[in-house]
Amino acid sequence: MTLAIETIDLTHRYNKKLVALDRLNLRVEQGCIYGFIGPNGAGKTTTLRILAGLLSPTKGEVRLLGERLTTRAAQRLVGYMPDFFGVYDDLRVWEYLDFFARCYGLRGARLRQVVDELLDLVDLAGKRDAFVQTLSRGMQQRLCLAHALVHDPPVLLLDEPASGLDPRARVELRELLRTLRDMGKTIMLSSHILSELAEVCDAIGIIDHGRMIISGPLAEVQQQLATGARARLRIARESDVVLALALLQRHPLVSAASAAAADPRALMIDFSEPLNEEQCAAILAELVNAGVAVSEFSARSENLEELFLRLTATTGQTNS
Ligand SMILES: Nc1ncnc2c1ncn2[C@@H]1O[C@H](COP(=O)(O)OP(=O)(O)OP(=O)(O)O)[C@@H](O)[C@H]1O
Which residues are in the ABC transporter domain (predicted)? Predict the structure, then answer.
């Protein structure tokens, strides 16, 4: 299968000391939504700007849909939405899109058709005559996405598209991204807030200090990195907490157990390996048989947020 985006040992230095990208190898399959996740200063924007043809890498190779990256190829194949966008305030919504569509050489009936279709796609048809500055942040974001789509590129690069959006606008953005994927687009989007991405991405890559730490289908990444599991236990009587902690801390499958700071009757347990249901039931039975009144028990595997914090914590401080 042709990869939509491929980088081989992509390296970028802003100056002699600052290595923003350090032999980054990226593989994004066609037709997927790829979440590019990393803390501030990790190198996300640098990567996206290189892929969009706006910045020349110091070293390394980039291929878009199998084609070697050139400025022309990037202009044709990529729609790029920067993290900071300037909208021309004194334009109406339709004029804004009309302007950029003309920059791509569209004219006449085709131009009008593209503007109308894009306004429908991003759900701004009702706002076509409104001034850009009167739009909400979420609407402006959708308008910028429409701008990135005027030349119907197969690859979309979105830098922090969800930042500053309220929960409803995020849901709308996610729906729009799914629609675009269903239309066959490959979407790479960056974020440092994982909860923004987890639901919508088919694959993720975690970058830190300009290096790819791990990349692949979301479930595979989670599975590959699963080192254990956590559980939360609530004890009905405070007098049982000490006994419960003593039992758990001696248990061979438990790597750590402690009382939660905010609730002394809630215990947080870290297991040394993911537990199956029988193992969970056996641990519960041991506690109950010892006379501990357990009122709640919820086990879960490490979520994406925890995974990210663990991975980026081990590689040290961020660049910024
Ligand atoms: N124009 C520039 N000149 C010099 N250094 C830069 C420039 N742009 C970025 N950097 C540095 O390169 C590194 C990577 O920055 P980049 O903006 O790519 O990270 P990022 O992951 O997008 O961060 P954020 O989430 O904060 O936007 C950082 O150390 C940053 O300070």
Answer: 5-234
